[in-house]
Amino acid sequence: MSESRQRPPFKGPRWIITLVALVTLVVITALVYPPRNSVTCYMFSGPGCQLYQQFLFVPSRELTDTEAAAQVVTNEIMNLPESKTANPKIAFMFLTPGALPFEPLWEMFLRGHENKFSIYVHASKKSSAHTSNYFVGRDIHSHKVAWGQISMVDAERRLLAHALIDPDNQHFVLLSDSCVPLFDFNYIYNHLIFANLSFIDCFEDPGPHGNGRYSQHMLPEVEKKDFRKGSQWFSMKRRHAIVVMADSLYYTKFKLYCRPKMEGRNCYADEHYFPTLFNMIDPNGIANWSVTHVDWSEGKWHPRLYNARDITPYLLRKIKSIQLAYHVTSDLKKVTTVKPCLWKGEQRPCYLFARKFNPETLDRLMYLFPNYTSLV
Fold it and tell me: How far is residue 275's CA from residue 231's CA, in Å, rounded to a whole number?
């Protein structure tokens, strides 16, 4: 009987164990130190990859040259790390035809917080003497603004451009001459500065006052399925404000093809440009409601105007207690969409500001201010 050959020790398990150990080490390292560049994010997923995952653009069609260039610029901006500053501020940007009748009320609101805010005023018709020192010298170079025209968007972009010059400005709020604050400064400051979203109103309206305003001339860059509507009174993070400044492609489309009395329809750029832009480039980065309350219940072309007799603690508490955002389509179906107002997963009041208030309400509001702003 032949002698059985002795087999050499099997070395397979050793290199397999070594390989598994190396792979395990790499995976653990990726979890402990999240990847922050596009190559490692392609290989591993983790918290640091959120931006790359969110803004990995996969076109459904061949892009035009201008679209490709715009996509590169937008992605670069959106993938930049959040800017850090030792003194983050809110930029309050007032878009007004002239005087600001509620300056005394705003002074009460701002007093004692001088290092946490900046003010910018765009007076489209004429600037008048300011009654509060907080507003003195804060007017920017302005142009005339026509309701419903692209000049309204131009004024908003102009305000953003001036506010972005200050690197400490981290959140940008558009306000009108008839706006008033609903809470005290600290509550509003913390709500905005520490939010992870921009509060831009945005919803799809298939009716005549929504998609009915869309023009085929916006193709191929803006498709009808992406066209959105919303309130012009936005509140946005610095990153989004920079995107607005960098955009010329989509802005030009709205400048040329979204205007009153065009092709038998009335399109208002201030109601569609921002909602459509951010629906296309960062739909998950916006809240889809505005933090400025407006009462459209009267069914008119303009919202309800509050007069002195309307100003009661009950009215102010009622507005402040709203925690659901409503959108109603303009077609015959009048479909209503209801969404809870969430702040980092916590349901909170939807509105920090409100309009439109008649100047005659100033005394009544100032009398009630210490009480109504402190009630959350």
Answer: 8
